[in-house]
Amino acid sequence: xxxxxxxxxxxxxxxxxxxxxxxxxxxxxxxxxxxxxxxxxxxxxxxxxxxxxxxxxxxxxxxxxxxxxxxxxxxxxxxxxxxxxxxxxxxxxxxxxxxxxxxxxxxxxxxxxxxxxxxxxxxxxxxxxxxxxxxxxxxxxxxxxxxxxxxxxx
Length: 154
What we know:
By secondary structure, the chain is α+β, with helices and mostly antiparallel strands. About 40% of the residues lie in helices and about 20% in strands. The chain folds into 2 domains: about 1-100, 2-Layer Sandwich (Alpha-Beta Plaits), CATH 3.30.70; about 125-154. The chain has 5 helices and 4 strands, in the order E-H-E-H-H-E-H-E-H. Helix 1 (about 15-25) packs antiparallel against helix 4 (about 75-85). It is globular, with a radius of gyration of 23 Å.
């Protein structure tokens, strides 16, 4: 699994991008309003920013959006195709930045059900069983770790 992060400068393409990702099977994303360093600095009354830079960024007062989505490893190329189709070449100025971060654990990502399916079609996990396992194994592991730390200090 990967955390896909897209910092989108071309926010006029946001709707098309989200439609494309959904059509490509990317089931969910979080969209956060964000602002880059240059845009934020351009709004400040600081002496170290020249008036020409301030004028360059103040025209539209358009910030950007940061899109986060947990994707499977095999979905990365699909995401890249959708991004390049809707936004364009990310090497061009004022388009965006796309990167991924490996994820070794994620919980709660399977909440979207395919059309025609119902959540009743899926087996529910009994939280009691999980909590019992954590209590049974978690305490022993914690004590063992503490014992090892105490031995290293001595």
